[in-house]
Amino acid sequence: MSKENVVAVRYAQALLSSLSNETQYDFAYTELKDLTSTFENSEDFVRVVESPLFKKKYKMDVLKAILAKAQYSKEISNLALLLLREERFSLIALITKSYKIVLNEKLSRALAKVEVAQELSSSDKTELEGKLKTLSGKTLEVTYVINSELLGGFVAQIDHDIWDYSIKGQLEDMGNKILNMRIG
Question: Does one domain contain both 114 and 79?
Fold first, then answer.
């Protein structure tokens, strides 16, 4: 893990420990994403923050104005000001990503990517998500992707685990078994 990643994880953990409940945890993540987007999408803001030509007080004043206008929480505002003061504001995207990982670990949540051959009904999605939750033992945030090559069924990835219940996957398994029978 790079030094920047280690630092980002520490800031993420510190932010999480400063909050007291799941509502605050999730709201902080929403604000972090927004702040990251603001930083990444504003060339002027990036120029001010990263330029050695501007004095730190001016940078702080600009950031305070942005934070006040957007009405960020005290915790996110304090984090942003600390990062700027310590000349680490450029880590905001990495901190946001690290925060999501740390948050998911704390709440036993995971991101799930589910590939399906065709769009599922809401009742099928609910049923599938319930089964995946049982398999993983975690609360899931599921993203669905249509992949017509699967022919039917689904492939689910949760963290590093992959469950392939697709027709394509089953056909490939049968083909491999037949090849192994011929060879063996």
Answer: no
- pTM (predicted TM-score): 0.73
Residue 25: name the closest of 38, 7, 12, 36 by CA.
12
Of 81, 105, 129, the residue that ends a domain is: 105
Alpha helices by DSSP H, listed for 86-144, are 92-106, 122-136
**What is the rounded average pLDDT of the residues 97-104?**
93
Q: What is the C-alpha radius of gyration for the chain, rounded to an integer number of angstroms?
A: 22
